[in-house]
Amino acid sequence: MSLIKKIEDKISELLIKKNSISEERKELLKSFAQYISSKLIEEKPINLIFICTHNSRRSTMAQIWAQTAAEYFGIPNILCYSGGTVVTAFNPNAVKAVRDAGFEVEKMSESENPKYLVTYSENSEPLKCFSKIYGDSFNPQQDFAALMTCSDADANCPMVLGAGARFPVKYDDPKEFDGTDMETKKYAERFEQIGIEILYAFSKIKSEKN
């Protein structure tokens, strides 16, 4: 494992908080873990797409945590993506929350929908994060798990074409705090909550695999 030290420390902090997850959420996360475990047993590649309407906040946060969790727990052959039902941009407040947690974030352009490189490990390729529809050619087109991170996307996508499995891991949108004194705090809380749950799920993959 070659995670950035600050991220390792953050993960240790979040793993202690797994008891904050409700039993209902734990069951959902375990089903997600079982899906990945079955792929590992079959020795098949595992593609995950986290989907939210605008692909600007929760879906990208979850993508980042999932790829990081795979590295932390040594789960092989996992590639994590994100997408939406419309194209916007990776929200600057979400970018700040990711950076504040210890990830290295490099903005590659000043366009309306800039690409960012998010580094979590010294030896792994950075994640390329930008807003896109979930069916964009950048993402896998079939045999992936669709993880619906918001209610709107879950309701508006009764069928995600190409998905082999679907999990409604929905989170409240920190967008409602944009422009308020609570903005930084609430984005950090949401990024932390997603991290706690993703890490819990991936910890179950490791125990089941062993």
List keywords for this structure.
alpha/beta; 6 helices; 210 residues; Rossmann fold; single chain; 16% strand; 42% helix
In the predicted model, the low-confidence regions spanning at least 5 consecutive residues are none
- CATH class bucket: Alpha Beta
Largest sheet: 4 strands, parallel
Mean pLDDT: 94
CATH architecture: 3-Layer(aba) Sandwich
Q: By helix and strand content, what is the structural category?
A: alpha/beta
Q: What is the count of β-strands? A: 7
Oligomeric form: single chain
**What percent of residues adopt helix (DSSP H or I)?**
40-55%
Strand order of the largest sheet: 2-1-6-7
Shape: globular
Radius of gyration: 16 Å
CATH topology-level fold name: Rossmann fold
Order of helices and strands: HHEHEHEEEEHEH
Strand proportion: 15-25%
CATH superfamily: Response regulator
Provide a descriptive summary of the structure in words.
- The chain has one domain (5-209): Rossmann fold.
- The protein contains 6 helices and 7 strands.
- It has helices at residues 5-15, 23-41, 58-73, 92-100, 151-156, 183-209; strands at residues 46-51, 78-83, 104-107, 116-119, 127-129, 144-148, 163-167.
- It has a 4-stranded parallel beta sheet.
- The mean pLDDT is 94.
Secondary-structure blueprint of this entry?
Blueprint: H1 5-15, H2 23-41, E1 46-51, H3 58-73, E2 78-83, H4 92-100, E3 104-107, E4 116-119, E5 127-129, E6 144-148, H5 151-156, E7 163-167, H6 183-209
Parallel strand pairs: 1-2, 1-6, 6-7
Antiparallel strand pairs: 3-4, 4-5
Give a brief outline of the structure.
With 210 residues, the chain is an alpha/beta fold. It has helices spanning 5-15, 23-41, 58-73, 92-100, 151-156, 183-209; strands at 46-51, 78-83, 104-107, 116-119, 127-129, 144-148, 163-167.
